[in-house]
Amino acid sequence: MGTNPSDTPHDRRAMFRLGLKRLVSPLAELIEERLPTAGRDRTPACREVLRPPGALPEVEFLARCYRCGNCVEVCPAKAIHPMNRQDVERAGTPYIDPDLAACTLCDQSACMKACPSGALQVMGDKRQIKIGTATVDRYACLRRSSNLCTICLDTCPIGREAIDISDGGELQVNPVACVGCGICQYNCPVRPRAISVKPR
Predict the structure, then answer these.
(1) What is the DSSP letter of 196?
(2) DSSP single-letter state for residue 6
(3) Which of 3.30.70.20, 3.40.50.360, 3.40.50.720, 3.50.50.60 would CATH assign to domain 130-200?
(4) Number of alpha helices (DSSP H) and beta strands (DSSP E) in the chain
(5) CA–CA dist 78, 72 (Å, integer)
(6) What is the pTM of this model?
(7) What is the CATH number of domain 48-125?
(8) 189's torsion region: left (phi>0), alpha (psi -120 to 50) or beta?
(9) Scanning 23, 61, 99, 170, which has the fewest C-beta atoms within 10 Å of its C-beta?
């Protein structure tokens, strides 16, 4: 009787390693998802990110930004982080992740005034700022199930000029007035969030 090659010790060990890998990989991924976010790279993988207030258009912003970190250091809300993925073009540039902290449109315009390169332009009126625009997932929003949640309206620094409730009881965003600060996204009680800010 011939010997089946798959019965050799070498092949059995290889099959065992493959089976073990398939068993352990999902567990490792689950543990990674539940680890604290501190110290982990949360830089968005997509090409578009939210830049701090006053940022020039992306191409010009990348050309002007010194990657000095001044805006990161002075932000009173600790909402600005440096990008640290293996992306040579954007490494060290500042971005905002409203899931972690939102821009509060501080009165001192701290990040804009701290920028030495002009990549962030000082805005005289917070309504001139355009970080991005909030978008609503109506299927995820609590209001869809007759819940009277108004957290995003109550916390918006621009007010009902930027976000309001339609006659049908749904949230509606005015893309002209919304500055994209991310406060609505940060405070949304739904996970995944029913409202999020997309880059301008």
Answers:
(1) E
(2) G
(3) 3.30.70.20
(4) 6, 6
(5) 7
(6) 0.76
(7) 3.30.70.20
(8) alpha
(9) 23
